[in-house]
# Entry
Amino acid sequence: MSTAAPADPELAPVASSTASGSSEEVPPLKADPATSKPRNRNPLRFAALRWTALRLVALAVLLGAWQLVVVLEVWPRVLVPSPGEVWHQFILASTVHDGVRGYGDHLLIEHLAVSLRRIGIGVGYAVVFGVPLGVAIGAVRPVAVVLEPAVTFLRTLPPLAYLSLLVIWFGIDESPKIWLLVIAAMPPIAASTAAAVRGVPGDLVEAAKALGAGRLPLLGGVVLPSALPEILTGIRIAVGVAYTSVVAAETINGVPGIGGMIRDAQRYNQTSVVIVGIIAIGLSGIVLDALMKALERVLVPWRGRA
Amino acid sequence: MPPADSSTTAATEARAAHAVVLDRITVRYGDARRGRRGRAPVTAVSDVSLTLDRGEFVVLVGPSGCGKTTLLRIVAGFERPAEGTATTHGEAPTPGRGTGVVFQQPRLFPWRTVGGNLAFALARHGVPRDARAARTAELLSQVGLSGMEHRRTWELSGGQQQRVAIARALAGEPELLLLDEPFAALDALTREHLQEEVRTLASRTGTTVLFVTHSAEEAILLGSRVLVMAAGPGRIVEEIAVPLPREPTTDVAALRGTAEFARLRGELAASLRNTATS
# Structure
């Protein structure tokens, strides 16, 4: 270990943690001017790997605990199915078996796709109406005075509270579901857009005016781009809200749809199907959030740098 | 009424002959009209008159709080005086019309590239889309940044960013250029380079320049005329003519080493010390 001594102090935690496993992997981390670049990159990549490993371990622990609870029969099987049963249910829901197509005549992926489509349309409308609304609230004082409380009012309402009203107004087909998602997704977009428009740096507005920018170039060339990072954050939050609302939206006549699937499974006490649905929503949510973050990096590369 | 009319016209013409005319300007902050907040109005600038001829390079120098930036902002059209009148080229100052402004911070748009920042300015001045690329290249070469069109603004050094800001201010071919301590945030070496380049640029193009600084060295090096301001309330207390050569070919860097430059700078520094202690 004495050869590893010249390693940077900041690398020490990495080095010591790997030492327990295999000390042969430590040498590349040693301070060596000739290989300074890989030396700087390796610990990072190594750390990322370490965190991934930690996640996998945590997941394994969770599954183990779950299995243990089932084996010990702490709760009846019908309430807490085993991971294996859930996996089996996942396979059943994802395939055509004995002439039965997935769950409720639709594959899991189809349920999910229908729900994602609803979320997409709902958030799409929410962006189309929420961004201009937010700009108006942020830029025009009388509009803010009238509409800002309305936006806050909507934002605090749980979607189930207005679902009944939407069903009375729009029936039980597609439109009340879309409406619910729009109403749920619009307030965060409008609110963050308004905040972003208010927060546009006065320095840049002045610079644009000094270049001869009138109202429209100012809006399109300074206010909107400067607000874009926060608008995107608002949209990301809105997608999250739409995700949490989609099950509510699909409470009534929701099949196909992941929320409808969960709802039906609950009615027949098919706990493992409910859990499959929950995991499907959660995982697709993680993927979508990562995509949104990637989109942010592409659209606003200057974020945090200027 | 004809006589009154003709005299007004004569006054307007007299003003149009100058690049900038400030006539008995007083600026107050927090006065009664702005709302009763219980704060006594502060007079930022009191009774300042100032005339810039076309092609002049005038430097306002003074301690912080003497109102030099306020005066520049009035000439830029960002603020209106409580009393007195301001005109640039015979008209009330309007931001973006015939006047370019460079601020202490570059204030570039980070969502646009270097070229995009210049294109924004060119578009505002009616340069057609297909002519912008050539004009952008020209502007960048003027500030020594040829070929940097596609760079991101935040990738540039502070000095390069300020060069882009200068190029952007020049995009509309302004007759009047206002610079508000543009080099204060730069390192000494970059500052010296840019001082020399701006001086040469101004003498080459004949642009009228109003330059604000608190540095005696910068004031003497750049200005053909230096106005010393004092605070409380802001006013002009002294005017120093700078008879250093101002040809486009003048070696500005060499000027720093001349005895005449040293003498003038010493004189101004002493004058600044006096205004600060008085």
